[in-house]
């Protein structure tokens, strides 16, 4: 009888835990920096004290190194006008830049911006990041693919889901604390994704970060995440945004749905 009561109470606790609904994480702005309002930001990387950016649109695409404090472009390389540049990540002494629908990836020397080689891949390129082994690519679907950095051969992939439902429109990526952070295009939310399973571990809601009256275009959407691993800092910006923000993520508190015991 005591065992039965114990099991019943344990079941109640499990049901209560399963009924706990977590709201999205929020944010706190630590610092605001200027950002080129004409930059159609597609990729953002912070490495060795430098901020690098990939900008898009045919005829306007570029690779840049930006001064964080002033927003001034310190170094740049134009992308040929037939290409629409997309995601960007660092790999060793190189920078790796995607193109949208041209199936090409450009590999640059990180210091001189000299183009070292061009590699081919199938499908579209949207966002790009890296862990210690692989380059990690989004293509606007719910699938995230992992590539060999030397050959750009696909090694594996994950399907991103939240409560069993596919999460599509995954765009700019960043690898932070063992998770993949992904912008969802045309939203103010960033998903935190398990690189092992594709499960969404949580969301960060950036509503209000840049007010609508400071957005110059319908496409001026949140799209740009960079992580300074040396100082544990996260930066976010958007396409055509006049500002770049250093932010601190504020975890959501669980909201427990009451569980009524059966008589």
Give the topology:
Elements: H1 2-18, E1 20-22, E2 26-34, E3 41-47, E4 50-55, E5 62-66, E6 73-78, E7 85-91, E8 94-99, E9 104-109, E10 115-120, E11 127-130, E12 135-138, E13 143-147, E14 154-159, E15 161-162, E16 165-166, E17 170-176, E18 179-184, E19 189-193, E20 200-205, E21 222-228, E22 233-238, E23 243-250, E24 254-256
Antiparallel strand pairs: 1-24, 2-23, 3-4, 4-5, 5-6, 7-8, 8-9, 9-10, 11-12, 12-13, 13-14, 15-16, 17-18, 18-19, 19-20, 21-22, 22-23
What ranges have pLDDT less than 50 throughout 5 or more consecutive residues? 1-20
Summarize model confidence as the mean pLDDT.
89
Q: Would you give the CATH topology?
A: Neuraminidase
Instruction: Look at the structure and name the CATH superfamily.
Output: TolB, C-terminal domain
List the helices and strands in order.
Answer: HEEEEEEEEEEEEEEEEEEEEEEEE
Q: How are the strands of the biggest sheet laid out side by side? A: 2-23-22-21
The description of the largest β-sheet is: 4 strands, antiparallel
N/C terminus separation: 16 Å
CATH class: Mainly Beta
Structural class: mainly beta
How large is the share of residues in beta strands? over 45%
**How many separate domains make up the residues?**
1
């Amino acid at each position: 009888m005591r065992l039965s009561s114990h099991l019943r109470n344990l079941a109640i606790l499990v049901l209560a835990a399963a009924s706990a609904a977590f709201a999205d994480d929020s944010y706190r702005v630590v610092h605001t920096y200027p950002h080129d309002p004409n930059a159609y930001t597609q990729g953002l990387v912070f490495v060795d004290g430098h901020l690098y950016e990939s900008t898009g649109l045919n005829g306007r695409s570029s690779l840049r190194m930006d001064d964080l404090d002033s927003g001034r472009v310190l170094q740049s390389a134009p992308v040929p006008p037939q290409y629409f540049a997309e995601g960007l990540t660092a790999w060793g002494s190189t920078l790796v830049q995607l193109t949208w629908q041209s199936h090409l990836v450009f590999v640059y020397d990180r210091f001189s911006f000299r183009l070292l080689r061009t590699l081919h891949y199938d499908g579209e390129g949207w966002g790009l990041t890296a862990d210690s082994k692989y380059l990690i690519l989004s293509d606007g679907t719910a699938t995230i693919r992992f590539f060999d950095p030397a050959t750009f051969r696909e090694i594996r992939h994950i399907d991103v889901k939240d409560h069993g439902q596919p999460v599509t429109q995954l765009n700019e990526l960043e690898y932070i604390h063992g998770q993949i952070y992904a912008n969802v295009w045309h939203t103010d939310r960033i998903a935190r994704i398990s690189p092992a399973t594709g499960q969404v571990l949580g969301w960060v809601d950036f509503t209000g970060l840049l007010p609508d009256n400071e957005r110059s275009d319908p496409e001026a959407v949140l799209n740009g995440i960079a992580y300074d691993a040396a100082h544990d800092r996260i930066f976010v910006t958007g396409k055509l945004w006049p500002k770049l923000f250093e932010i601190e993520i504020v975890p959501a508190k669980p909201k427990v749905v009451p569980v009524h015991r059966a008589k």
